[in-house]
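Work package 3, deliverable 3.1, input record:
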Amino acid sequence: MTNRKAVKMSIEGRKRVIIENVKPEIDGGQFPIKRIVNDTVKVQADVFSDGHDEVVARLRYRKMSEKRWNEVPMKFLGNDRWEGIFTIKEMTTYVYTIEGWVDRFLTWQKAIQKKHEAGQDLKVEFLVGVSLIKEASKRATGQDAQRLAELGKFIKNENIVQNIAVVLSHELTVLMSTYPERRFSTRYGKELLIAVERSLAGFSSWYEMFPRSASPDTSRFGTLKDCIDFIPELAKMGFDILYLPPLHPIGQKNRKGKNNSQTAGQSAPGSPWAIGAEEGGHMAVLSDLGTVKDVEKLVREAKRHNVEIAIDIAYQCSPDHPYIKDHPDWFIKRPDGTIQYAENPPKKYEDIVPFNFETEEWNSLWNELKKIILFWIGKRIRIFRVDNPHTKPFLFWDWLIGEIKKDYPDTIFLSEAFTRPKVMYRLAKSGFSQSYTYFTWRNTKKELIEYCTALTQSDVCEYFRPNFWPNTPDILPEFLQYGERAGFMIRFILAATLSSNYGIYGPPFELCVDAALSDREEYRNSEKYEVRHWDRHKEGNLVDLISRVNQIRRDNPALHMTGNVKFYDVDNDSILFYVKATDDLSNIVLIVVNLDPYHTQSGWVHVPLKALGLDPAQPYLVYDMLSNDKYIWHGERSYVELNPFAMPAHILRVHRRLKREVDFDYYL
Amino acid sequence: MTNRKAVKMSIEGRKRVIIENVKPEIDGGQFPIKRIVNDTVKVQADVFSDGHDEVVARLRYRKMSEKRWNEVPMKFLGNDRWEGIFTIKEMTTYVYTIEGWVDRFLTWQKAIQKKHEAGQDLKVEFLVGVSLIKEASKRATGQDAQRLAELGKFIKNENIVQNIAVVLSHELTVLMSTYPERRFSTRYGKELLIAVERSLAGFSSWYEMFPRSASPDTSRFGTLKDCIDFIPELAKMGFDILYLPPLHPIGQKNRKGKNNSQTAGQSAPGSPWAIGAEEGGHMAVLSDLGTVKDVEKLVREAKRHNVEIAIDIAYQCSPDHPYIKDHPDWFIKRPDGTIQYAENPPKKYEDIVPFNFETEEWNSLWNELKKIILFWIGKRIRIFRVDNPHTKPFLFWDWLIGEIKKDYPDTIFLSEAFTRPKVMYRLAKSGFSQSYTYFTWRNTKKELIEYCTALTQSDVCEYFRPNFWPNTPDILPEFLQYGERAGFMIRFILAATLSSNYGIYGPPFELCVDAALSDREEYRNSEKYEVRHWDRHKEGNLVDLISRVNQIRRDNPALHMTGNVKFYDVDNDSILFYVKATDDLSNIVLIVVNLDPYHTQSGWVHVPLKALGLDPAQPYLVYDMLSNDKYIWHGERSYVELNPFAMPAHILRVHRRLKREVDFDYYL
């Protein structure tokens, strides 16, 4: 219980500084903000005192494992708001807080300057300052102490102009701010946490694929070995992560057939998410795919190509899972003795049995679920895409992710929760590194701007890292069903440039597969229920575009972040224009996308020259990294025209004009 | 330190409900929200669980002095947001929090309904429900237990339609919600406080007057006895509070003369805020005014007329204050042995010596300052207007107000801090009941709407009660200097109808005194530095208008609140239109003010019929309580025309149309 405590005389009543409204601070400090190494942390707070005295604020931070604090001065922004910034140097938990105090020296320095300007008598004023400097010299050490003592003596002479020069000197100001009187300083009452993850948590491109469809030989089931063979091609396309749906044995009972039909034929392979059969459960591999050893080999081979393997964690069972016999208490038994299958009334999922997280045996259940992760960590998997985390308790995730990250801080969890926003955000607070989003259904200019603004312009961006997927095995969105090849190009470019983390479900994506079940956003003949074979080299495939965009992403640090996206005006509602830039403006990317997959669209984009540090009086060069075209732009408005059948977007790198008329840095 | 604790197995892992984003909650629960008796408290929170189960949320509250909680159900607003409301019944501190749980019965009831509609087999489902009802009957007592047991048995028959009728019956639903299973319920981690004050803290009209100018005899100094004589007139004008500037002995040393001049003549009475002379300090009364006994008499006489006396608390001293000799440690001694007077460089206030709140003796200083309040409380003063609280430490106010209110909860403190917004808000959090505001300088339509919106449409309204003053002895705003009589009328009506708490400094206000120092917003020949005599009955005085508006305020509960103000469109930037209504819409007041003191202005106001529960198809009557005029309005747009020289405003009470054409409730 956090009640307001009555203020008692036992406090230090001379602490005059108030610190409040600290940002970021997630749920009163209950949850950490997230960063990766080399990210900056920008902290703001209201810091003020009574009266007119000068206030100083410092941002303090440390590694959780170390006691020693670092300090950076905070800058006054106006209206009692202060800001401090520091950079994360190491993949470890950090702590930050704020300290502020009334600075008697600065107060005196400012007052004497004003009094001097007003021609007032300063004799006694100088004596006050000399005593402040003397006190500081006692707090100082070595040469600084000696120098302060000297400066104090300078002021004792009768030459007012010379005294004032010493009082206002840079040297004295710096020395005094190095040894301030902090006896009555106020510390913010909370120490706030920063969860630091490795860089892949912040910048990643995912490729999802069903191993059983990976066989180049259309007559047989694909295997993990086929996946190994595919790795070089995937690496060439520029993906960082190959994510595989569950690899485990699949239940026989109530197995689903083609297109989710109730009765599976003899040959139906079943849904990979119906996990567990006699041969094993979450720690086994379906023999048709290979062995646990094959998984390890895949991980190794992928690593050689700088690709990591992500596996699926779906905490649910088929009715044949060994857990059901071995741990009946982990499931809901109905009054007729049967085990409760999954449902969302009136829908039934008879091939799936959920765990009962309200079981008396929740302790052993939690531990077993943790064991599953640790098993795969033992096989060198470090990335887990978690299926439907929103149907398991939040406290469980708080615990599980905390437990795993304690020993394996390089583990990355992706939350596959397509549900209500507050539930998705709460899961991110639990520690998920990345999260699926509504991007999949945000198509129009208004929708995209509103959604990206909501994700990046509020506290949400401090803990929720979006991962944009234009498609998944569960979702073939309407836009892709009707948008033809240009539609796939548009959605791909948006996903890969709006968000630093994105993924596609292939090969259906790069092959522009748009066959859906009637009136549904689901694939016809979905791989979820049958083995497919894909001709990756079919004409019209998007492999070249994808490869190029992934290369552009790698080359441009501005695209390694999501929170830096800013939208600007275009006088055409079918064209979306946004800018991503690094903090230091050394890398500026302008992205212009025609959202209409059927028609050429044109318009005038409004380039925010001032915000980008560009001289409005001078032309500048933009280089389209998609087409290799170059344009010389001039002024705030520039004309664009995009034919979706050729290329629905520009991804333009800005080249700042240098000294002479022809000296674009691009040519250097 | 509030760090995120690692979730351990020692918790109850089956608590599935999350409660977050509770509003109101001031600074994470560090400060109470404020209410008066009969106010409602509306609390919102995000309450949700994993999965698809039904969630129940309850708002819990209690008097701090009692252990027993009351509960009200919270209503689901959508997007995981819930709201609950309760009413404050007593002037005591309240506590509130939230509890939520997954309701297995509601989940089951909803599921069986859907399954029934889908024609699924329900046999086993009914058995599940029967067992839930049986468990509830064990938790229930008396007749309820018996009835639940009976209802459980009804469901056991084979008639599905009848079973469903019982399952969905109101009776079963109510009984089950009376005895829910709360074993795994989640309590919000904080118990939040409500500081409840008496009604005058929320609804009050203040009149400030210098007693020394209260003499009807122009040849002599006004006294407290003159104030007593003035009380009936003040009561007739409808004021609740008579606020008197400091009544204490005034220092001689560095006394200020007319118009704040450095050298006071023999006859200069000095500023009442230069407190303390040989004859006494903050617990004494200037002999020219009378005695402490006279103060007590004034309080008594005022009470007979339902007027309360507020005195000024100015924690500062004249150089002659006895404290300076008796407690030199409470002041700043300069190196030359002199005591530091007040300054805001380069400005000097030589007649004032501030306390040094950084003194080693701050304990004894705080206790003495508390003693001053207690002294006047002993004389039955319960309202204190505090001078410049922003130049004393916030922790001091936290402590002082807490200490006083502990024993005298009916004490009201008004914060006279004209300073930066965050400082003003922090003082309100310290416990000040009301606060001066920037209203004094907000004149245009845009300024007024923006400012009132900032005060009423954010968390600020939960702890900061504005008090609107069109003038003070320190401030004669430009608008009043140039606006003539109409200007005073406009500013008065705005203050008294925008804010439930307002005040004027009279008689200069009702006499429309507009003589200012050149280029300053200060009165010429200010009463702060000389004795004045006023002819209250001078032609053109605003006594009638003031009396009428105060009567309108008393008669209309909608004007007893500030947070209910809402602004609506008028097609003229010189006309401001706002509405105040009670929650139940039983009292609706439309206020239209011409902000231009020089010209008649007209326009069409947009009345929000729907929000006010008015039928757009029917005419309704509005009664102008200022002029006694009546208008029949019809539809959303109505024409207004306001001549500032006659009356610059309408204050219209809406009379809802009753059944027959001519039956306005006004006539009933």
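Chain B has five domains: 1-103+185-197, 104-180, 203-246+284-312+374-555, 248-283+316-354, 560-667.
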